[in-house]
Write a structure and sequence with these properties.
Largest sheet: 7 strands, antiparallel
Distance between the termini: 82 Å
Strand content: 25-35%
Helix content: 10-25%
């Protein structure tokens, strides 16, 4: 009896296990219709209209007084010719985020539009209704725009979800106005996370849910009906969906929308440094235990300079969060409050230091330009020209002629690269004739002896690489070269 009871228990557990497996396998809902019904009233089609000048290309030319003159004039007028302005229309998508009529879409959907018309989903047997919209604010960096309509009553709206919790493989649903086929639904999964296309603040969710032209600005929903992305771009050789679409993550969008709603513009934090990623050979050359962080290549006038940050510092932590790379730092700084004092941990001279920086506003810095130049000394004597080969490079002390040719200030110091061995590591890493070496081993170099000393010091310290700060056209970057050459 005991044996039979055990067998029955085991059989029961087996059946339960099979049922659990079946439930897991059927995790995908049988139908997305309930979800579509729930969110559809908040999804909108957007039609924009822009007044453009008449055609400026070649027109039909006939001699004055020709019998065909009237015919060609009539033909051009009938086909929009001549100098008369005409209207150009475009389609896109969007979604309502508040009952009082705030709507999110892509900036490129409404850019340069004179008129914006919002078409709402037809419901309860009623036809779709249309309302004009005005632009509250836009952000070109994330391609987000916030619109506002005035409705007779409260509007149906959807809420943002937490895009950071979306996992690769999660089911998602896209809605919008693809190719003018309004209120169309497509479904797929999250294919990848944290994709970057071309912007500094990019954080895209990649999905295979069908996204086509006209879907721009529409929502990407999770299975709870929350917006976790704004459909923005596709990767396609022919302009149609091939299953690679990109939605700007909601955790980026919510911060932008909040600022647009409050100020009508974005207000991003600004640190004021030029940075680059840390490679393995750079980390070895500086004595870092691992790659990571953001290497400061230049510190123009701004918050960082005022706080004491220097070129050659590696930013390891910003406002209490570890910095993975330059993209991570740019996003963290941009999302920070203007005027906030933050602790920045840097690696400098073989150890870590903490610097307190009060952030400025990026938009103000961009309007102001690149800052001021140092004044001339004018009284320096010209060093004697000479050259020497180091690490696959032939370098020379800067002369007046070189400064003029390279567009440098009269008091600029450093070593000009006058030749690069094409078989060398230096050539592989992009160093070219005309580049100027201003630092080696994170110390300034003005003479050939300075560079030779830095190389000897690095070898004596057991380093495998030497870190150089190189400028081209005024733009700095660090390059690590192997000393085993």
């Amino acid at each position: 009896m005991i044996t039979n009871a055990r067998l029955m228990a085991l059989a029961g557990l087996s059946v339960l296990f099979l049922l659990l497996q079946t439930l897991i396998a059927q995790a995908r809902p049988e139908s997305l219709a309930p979800l579509a019904d729930k969110v559809s009233p908040a999804v909108v089609n957007i039609t924009t209209s822009t007044l453009v000048e008449g055609p400026t290309g070649p027109q039909g030319i006939v001699p004055e007084g020709s019998p065909f003159e009237d015919f060609f004039r009539e033909f051009q007028d009938r086909n929009g010719g001549g100098d008369r302005p005409r209207r150009s229309s475009a389609l896109g998508s969007g979604f309502v985020i508040s009952e009082d009529g705030y709507i999110v879409t892509n900036n490129h959907v409404i850019a340069k539009a004179d008129e914006i018309l919002i078409e709402f989903f037809p419901g309860d047997g009623q036809p779709a209704r249309e309302l004009p919209a005005k632009v509250v604010g836009t952000d070109e960096n994330t391609d987000i725009a916030l619109l506002k309509v005035e409705a007779d009553g409260p509007l149906k709206y959807v809420k943002f979800g937490n895009s950071d919790t979306a996992r690769v493989g999660d089911w998602v649903m896209a809605m919008g106005n693809p190719l003018g086929q309004g209120f169309s639904v497509s479904a797929g999964i999250v294919s990848a996370r944290n994709r970057a296309l071309s912007g500094s603040y990019d954080d895209y969710i990649q999905t295979d849910a069908a996204i086509n032209r006209g879907n721009s600005g529409g929502p990407l929903f999770n299975m709870d009906g929350e917006v976790i992305g704004v459909n923005t771009a596709i990767l396609s050789p022919n302009g149609g969906s091939i299953g690679i679409g990109f939605s700007m993550a909601s955790n980026v969008v919510t911060k932008v929308v909040g600022q647009l709603r409050e100020y009508g513009e974005t207000r991003r934090g600004w640190l004021g440094v030029r940075i680059q990623d840390v490679t393995e050979d750079m980390a070895e050359a500086m004595g870092l235990e691992k790659t990571g962080g953001a290497l400061i290549s230049d510190v123009p006038d701004g918050p960082a300079k005022e706080a004491g940050l220097k070129a050659g510092d590696v930013i390891l932590s910003f406002d209490g969060a570890e910095v993975r790379d330059t993209r991570d730092l740019v996003r963290r700084v941009g999302e920070s409050e203007v005027g906030k004092s933050v602790r920045v941990v840097v690696f400098r001279d073989g150890g870590t230091q903490t610097v307190l920086v009060t952030l400025g506003r990026r938009e103000d810095a961009e309007r102001a330009g690149s800052g001021t130049e140092d004044e001339n000394d004018g009284g320096q004597s010209e060093p004697e020209a000479s050259k020497k080969e180091f690490l696959g490079l032939t370098v020379s002390v800067l002369t007046s002629d070189m400064r003029t040719e390279l567009g440098l200030a009269d008091d600029a110091t450093g070593l000009a690269i006058i030749a690069v061995d094409e078989a060398s590591e230096a050539f592989e890493k992009g160093l070219r004739t005309g580049d100027v070496i201003t630092e080696a081993g994170q110390q300034k170099v003005a003479t050939l002896a300075d560079l030779e000393t830095r190389i000897d010091e690095a070898r004596e310290a057991g380093r495998k690489s030497l870190l150089l700060l190189v400028r081209r056209g005024g733009e700095p970057r660090f390059v690590a070269l192997s000393l085993d050459q």
